[in-house]
Amino acid sequence: MAIKLIRRGVADDPAEALKFICPPAFSGGPIDPQPATRTLRRNLDVMIDLPLPPAVAARTRALKDKIRLWTIEDPDLPQDQGRTFPSPLIRTVQGDVVQATVGFQLDAHTIHWHGIEPTPLNDGVGHTSFEATSSFVYQFATNTAGTYFYHCHKNTVLHFEMGLYGGLIVDPLNPDPDSLNQAPYPTGGPGFASANVPGFPGFDPANFVVPYDVEAVWAVDSFDSIWHLLNHDAFMQKCDANDPMAAANFTNDGILNVFRPDVFLISGVVSVPASSPEVSPEIGANIQDPRVAINAKVNQTVLIRLLNADYLIHENILGLDSVAIAADGHPFGVPPLNRYSAPVRIPAGRPFRTTSARRYDLLVRTPAVPGIFPFRVKFIDWISGKVVHIARTVIKVQP
Amino acid sequence: MERRDFLKFGAGGLAALVVGSKMPWMDNRAYAAVPALEFTITDTIKEMVTHNAINTAECYFWIYKETNLPADYPAPTILATAGEVINIRIINALEQPHNFVIPGIFNSGIIAAGATVEAAFTVPLNRTGTHLYFDNLNRPVNRVMGLHGAFIVMPAAPVAGQKWTPYRTPTPQVQQLFNDLGSAAHWPGLAWEDASPDTLTPSFRQYVWLLSQASPTLFRDVGRVPAGEIFPAADFVQRFRRDQFSRNSHDLAQTSDIPQYFTGCGQSGHFMHNNPVIVPMARVGEPIVLRVLNAGLMSHSMHIHANHFYIISVDGIVQGDPNPADPMLKGPGPIWVDTFTANPWGAASSKYDLLMPYMRPPDVPNSRGIGRGGSGDAALNSLAGQPVWPPVEEFDVRMFNTIDQRQSPLCYPAHDHSEPSQSAQGGNYNCGVIGGQYFIGDLNISLPRVNINDDPAMPLLPPQTFPMDEDFAMMLGLDQDPQILVYGIDEARRNGIMEASKDSALESQADRPPFPV
């Protein structure tokens, strides 16, 4: 009795090889439809051009004053709100059964709901299920409250880089059913987060939730401007359903292992170099854009949802004490399934690293006196280990 | 060297060798027992993932060739038991000095070109967990060139009165997690140490993902160094890493020595993702320990779909046991995440043990909102009136143009989210480092037994198994009722689990493969 061997080029298992090399096109859904408690729509891809400040444009490898992005549109919002980068935030409530109707234009794409764990056809990975054309209704529950994101998972190395992603937040219920502020909470706060933080102001040990006043979503990213000149199927192997392993299907002259970013961003706002060109690494000016900079009052709770939406390593340094209450959408210490872990204090100034797709939820208590506190993120190349840029923003604490 | 040889083994005929006395955790048909270890340090050329008649994608490696097995990159996983004495013999058939080191366990000392070392060592009791054996000379060149493999040390027994964990001295949190498996209401199914003969499920299910990266042009040049000379390590690192941030540079990958192939256990793309000795293929309720090591020179950010997993050990430190005075001041313990950072060997966070819980994918809707399976967590009904778990409607969605393939068993990927490593030769997504996990059934709900291929002429699948086609059932050995046992090396060959090595005699320098020019 042999464990079956899978040999190079022989494709002993042609069905599996075919599925992997040559994802089928499919549309329709939902499969096993259920009554939904929440519905939403998205379209992709929608191209937008992100203007680059002159100081950034001058030293991009592509030498352009704007960078072409592909985004995922919310067609139910006015265009100026529905066509953004990152793509419009999705908020659901813990326990929801979600049906997401996704339109696919221009090209086959998918959406993977990163950290949400449904059946494979709803998981949105082309090479293990299908690439969607025209439209597909994804169905999944959102059973654990926390920070997630959604992104295209076709030719992912390119499509994720091109901007096809947005945030996905699952809110826990407000323990007070009579409150006017019920989940899903307004983006920016106030709201509640799942956590197990005894002693933290407002912590509700019966429901394992903690209130926050101000919320920030920091999606930290970088772009290689050369990649943004490429087409959807750049450097993919060709799909020959009759002979998936055929020699001529493969490319051998691609550049997708060479990622040399020259644009650095937090939540879609470009970090503009403030240091002289001789300084290495270059340091960005403080980002003051309200999409990024946090405005809070004294003695408040701020919830920072931090996402590495990049291919680089990030070293994050926050100028205030924080408590990491969750990673990857799952709150530390909340029973039963996360009873084995506990939240962690991160003292002000202590660096901590994130790599691609990792998320941390950080609770910050603002001090009793006003002040301006820094946040810095060092972009570290994942091959060379070199710091290539430092982006900065602030938490402003006012009376 | 016959290229066929390492294709056979490289294709995953065997997960691992076990050495030492017979232990309960060895009952797994993917293991073969050997009385002692013998390696030859030699070189090879391996066909990489995109290799074909037109595009001869090959890479030169240095390898530890285990005597009983065909040559492959990387070296085979070795499993041993803490406290055992292991005899080892290492022959250096290359032209530079090499060695064989398992940090904290064994160090061969320098082995001159052409020399042989014989030794015996005792596996220390306090070294249970995951280790790398590798050549640490001319660091990191010899390791990155392929001289590495995984060395797993299992405890001889569980902590008295507790269930088995992978450790002699687990933290309270990790012990609690393993005690809960199969016992707590939220973990119905098997404990890690449990086998299930009815379903042909082995005990102590464990897998290794040994990550590395290959630069064919750089490795070729290392192989061309004249006998007795050493390739400068600083040059190697510089060329591998290359200064990527000369912003005025418009040149492309063809001129670069940065890695082009990204591998797990020496495989990439389809050959990794669909390999049943690399990628777990198990039922809900059959938890698995996954050991991940990064022997290479760059970071990966590994994301596993379908289930968050518990990080139970990092760099040999079992997670948990925080400072009782202020638990928030130390690490968070075994956290439950969907992505982790696998840094290169020698940096922090380069070696992990994970527990893959094999719970029902928790966001398939069910009545309590958590995918625990078992009573009280019945799946919700679809509008058609049938439960959405198992997803029987999804099983039979057929969407191929030419091959009518069902969606069962359930297939999920696990990949580096630093996606440039999802390429080979600069493209061909998804021919990079991609593992996964398959769900082939569910122990916690009643599933009717079905025939392979739904064909009454074919054998019945084991109970609690999702429908599947013949090729998949054969790959998993579910087309018959094999005994679950550890094979001796000869028995493994008789049973076809392991291809007999064509020639276990040492390869002479004259037999070294030519370098691609």
Overview of this structure, please?
The complex is a heterodimer of chains A (399) and B (517). In chain A, the strands form five sheets. In chain A, strands 12, 13, 14, 17, 19, 20, 21 and 23 form an eight-stranded mixed sheet that branches. Chain A is globular. Chain A has four helices and 25 strands. In chain A, a hairpin with a 2-residue loop joins strand 13 and strand 14. Chain A folds into two domains: 1-171, Cupredoxins -  blue copper proteins (Immunoglobulin-like, Sandwich), CATH 2.60.40.420; 175-224 and 259-399, Sandwich (Immunoglobulin-like), CATH 2.60.40. In chain A, 58% of the residues are buried. Chain A is mainly beta. With 517 residues, chain B is an alpha/beta fold. Chain B has one domain: Cupredoxins -  blue copper proteins (Immunoglobulin-like). In chain B, 11% of the residues lie in helices and 26% in strands. Chain B is built from nine helices and 24 strands. Chain B has helices at 3-10, 141-144, 172-180, 216-223, 233-241, 270-273, 392-395, 470-475, 489-494, and strands spanning 16-19, 31-34, 37-47, 58-66, 77-81, 85-92, 101-102, 106-107, 116-122, 129-134, 148-154, 206-214, 261-264, 281-284, 288-294, 300-304, 309-314, 317-318, 336-337, 339-342, 351-356, 410-416, 434-442, 487-488. In chain B, strands 12, 13, 15, 17, 18, 19 and 21 form a seven-stranded mixed sheet that branches. The longest helix of chain B is centred in the middle third of the chain and has 9 residues, at 172-180. Chain B is globular and about 75 Å long. Classes of the chains: A mainly beta (399), B alpha/beta (517). Chains A and B meet through helix 1, strand 7, helix 4 and strand 19 of A and helix 1, helix 3, helix 6, strand 16 and strand 19 of B.
